[in-house]
TrEMBL record:
Protein name in the entry: DUF924 domain-containing protein
Stored Pfam families: DUF924 (PF06041)
Domain of life: Eukaryota
Entry-linked InterPro entries: DUF924, TPR-like_helical_dom_sf
Length: 224
């Protein structure tokens, strides 16, 4: 096992993939810094929606429709992660409060599952902040198996990896907490009830009562 994360040169990635990752995380050197501060305001906020739409809207549309381009990006673990950031994360900013937020979820989940299966979270292919978004993607699934993969496989392996510095473990424990919250919701309802209105699904009285008693941040992400 490598002792430090692999920092592939930006030239090893398609230019657009490198641009997506640079926007989301900062430079490769920043991502590998043991003291890297996770960009929660960008990753889980909405203030950058318009900027993201202007910068990446056309790219996300093209990438979602072009399997050959996605395949080129997926030639490396970091390029595969860039597909996830573009189609799972940026797509949510671009299409907030519409059903299109979820348009590419299954495609991204297939990639995230493959990254976990291939050990990209523990072999040095990706830095800890990058690995966190393998988890975020899996948390978006409405399949309990993906949540079990996230909580029972990805995180235990990642948190015990010698590649993860103590400061990064603290950030990752926060991600794990939210992964468990998502897991519990899907385990209870077999879906995310807060998505029902956007997806044209009827909510049960029990789901509505449950939602009314909670105001999770990720529930608010689906609202205008």
């Amino acid at each position: 096992m490598a002792l430090t994360p692999t920092l592939n040169a930006a030239g090893d990635l398609p230019a657009d993939a490198a641009a997506v990752l640079e926007f989301w995380y900062g430079s490769l050197a920043e991502r590998a810094d043991p003291a890297y501060a996770h960009r929660y305001a960008l990753w889980f906020g909405r203030d950058a929606d318009e900027d993201i739409r202007a910068r990446f809207g056309a790219l996300v549309e093209r990438l979602g429709a072009d399997a050959a381009e996605r395949s080129r990006w997926c030639a490396s673990a970091r390029g595969a992660l860039a597909v996830i950031i573009a189609l799972d994360q940026l797509n949510r900013n671009i299409h907030r409060a519409t059903a299109r937020m979820f348009a590419h979820d299954e495609l991204c989940l297939e990639i995230a599952r493959a990254l976990v299966r291939d050990g990209a979270h523990v072999d040095g292919s990706l830095t800890p902040p990058e690995c966190a978004h393998m988890s975020v993607c899996l948390s978006h699934s409405e399949d309990e198996a993906d949540h079990k993969l996230n909580v029972e496989t990805l995180f235990p392996q990642l948190l015990h990896s010698p590649l993860v510095a103590p400061a990064q473990r603290e950030h990752l424990r926060g991600h794990l907490h939210m992964a468990r919250v998502h897991c519990d919701e899907v385990s209870r309802w077999k879906r995310f009830p807060h998505r029902n209105a956007l997806l044209g699904r009827e909510s049960s009285a029990e789901e509505l009562a449950w939602l009314a008693a909670r105001d999770y941040g990720y529930h608010r992400q689906t609202r205008k």
